[in-house]
Amino acid sequence: MNETPSLSEVQKRTVRLLSYEDGLWDLLLGVVFLLLAIYPITRAVLGPAWNLVLFVGLLLLATTIFTALRRRISTPRLGYVRARTTPEKKLILATAIALVALTAGLVILTLVNPAWLGGPTPAVALSSVWSYQVEILVLLALIVLFSAMGYRFGVPRLYLYGWLLGGANLASVILYRGAPEGFNWPLATAAGIILLIGATLLVRMLRRYPVPDAEA
Amino acid sequence: MAKDRPQGQGLRDLSGVDRVVHEPARLMILMVLYGLREADALFLLNATELTWGNLSSHVSKLEEAGYVEVDKGFVGKKPRTMVRLTGAGRKAVDDYRRTMQVALKKPRTS
């Protein structure tokens, strides 16, 4: 240890170690977008209401597995902490949850493509950028959300995720508008890349941080 | 306020800087704990990249100074040492940061 990092750098490292070092968050994100990729297929089979129930159920299951894996795999290797809650942190958390919910809602909205949303038919798909207002809004929301997280926590790959997921969402709307019932390849590809990154990070964490026998 | 102080006051403050906090490894431990309610020794080890021996020795010094509290317990059959910053420790970090900011403030070039 040759240098003393700044307070913000130490805090960023702490957050990275807590949330992003093990790749589990990436795996959860990949699973969520993979679920969104099959969302139009299951919706066509189950109908909107039951499909939403299935989606929320699978999301809860994925979150439960994610929490269990973190407790069983990551905590014995990376250590245990209890976060300090301040009014400022609560406000940031509430804002982040609201933004994530809003973005997820907009992504689902663009995937479902209800009639009242309007927009161009495939024949005029690329004729006017302005006909994709909602999709461009989703693209910008994803880029801003992930970039803000990447900057705040010092995790550069989150910038990539913003562009990847925003771009995939826009591409899927351009490709599937008018026929949104099929498997969503752009979102599935983006989710696959994120899952691959997550799995790589998980393997790296397992190798880099073996479980210590006991505290020295 | 720092700007009302006579010239050189910031540098004179450096002589009174808290040497328990000023040591880089201890400062790192305090900075990690500053943003958390508590952390176990393993997390501190990974976050600071110190060795077990160094970490243990520095945490003991911080505990002696009253800046951290240490709780030794067990999770199942495995021992777990939890470390948390005390009110005095939080104040010491704030004071240290203020002192260093004043002392290292860039002079105005006109």
As residue ranges, the low-confidence spans of chain B are none
Helicity of chain A, as a percent range? over 70%
Kindly report the CATH topology of chain B. Arc Repressor Mutant, subunit A
Structural class of chain A: mainly alpha
CATH homologous group name of chain B: Winged helix-like DNA-binding domain superfamily/Winged helix DNA-binding domain
Unreliable residue stretches of chain A: 122-126
**Average pLDDT, all residues of chain A:** 81
Mass-distribution shape of chain A: globular
Number of helices of chain A: 7
Task: Name the pair of protein chains with the most residues at their interface, and give those residue counts.
Answer: A-B, 23 and 32 residues
Radius of gyration of chain B: 17 Å
**Total count of helical runs of at least 4 residues of chain B:** 6
Number of domains of chain B: 1
Overall shape of chain B: it is: elongated
The CATH C-level class name of chain B = Mainly Alpha
**β-sheet strand percentage of chain B:** 15-25%
How many beta-strand segments of chain B?
A: 3
Mean pLDDT of chain B: 85
